[in-house]
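As a next step, we paired sequence with structure tokens, yielding the entry below.
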Amino acid sequence: MFFLIQLILICLVFCSPPQNKLILIQGGIFTRGKDITNRPDESPKHKVYVNDFYYHETLVSQFEFKKFIAESNYKTDAKKKGYCMISYEGMKDWDWEEKKEANYLFPFGKDSKIDVSEDTPVVCVSYNDAKSYCEFYGLRLPTEAEWEYAARAGSQTKFPWGDSEIFEGKFRLNFWQGEDHKTANSKDGHKYLSPVRAYPPNKWGVFDPVGNVWQFTNDFYSPLTYLEAYQYEQQNGKPIQNPMGIKNGTKKVSRGGSWWCSEKTCNGYGLNYRGKINPDSPFNNNGFRCAKKIM
């Protein structure tokens, strides 16, 4: 019995994924948006100031979310609905399947043979679920401005390391490679979800700043967010400070793109594309990380 207890204690330390730490993101000014773009909600270019804040170094993993469910007895939107919207190799571009009984434990369905490990980002969670998780631990979801500031880590390119998916001869993010979604080339090493530390972090220590899964922010989506911030800067002669988005809306902003994004379809992976989603919608390519205000 003594040796069994020792074995269990050792496994708790070494068998579990590494703990997701809160890292300090020192505040400052960054440039957001583009003047030339085919997506008007990304324009015009303007400056934004954000305060210091704490930020999860990785996306919240399935392991961490499972622990949250056990501690809180929380019921996810996917559980309430009885399904999660899923995608997988072989589907047509832009197609989604309403998969019965798919959830954060079985993000491709209970009958799927696709392996999903505990150290991959939790998916089949909604904005509501992500918000509840963060608040349970005394945290919150990041604002859209905080998300981009932390992801950019001082860069002004499409990705934190440059304008190509490849840096120093290696892929730096998880996204879909292939002419369409019928076949994946998986040159980045992953067809579906990748572990939360599979790729090197950006200069500020943020893993998966882009790719792998779309990341929820706390802001309601508005197509005029950037225009209004630009107008504020022009009228006041200084950047807008700590913007939090519009007070009311129907969709929440998600950023970063996912394993399902490709150049041939949404092309949403990177630091510019502004996604949006219903707060109660669970998809198997949406995840999150939390932030915390510095008191």
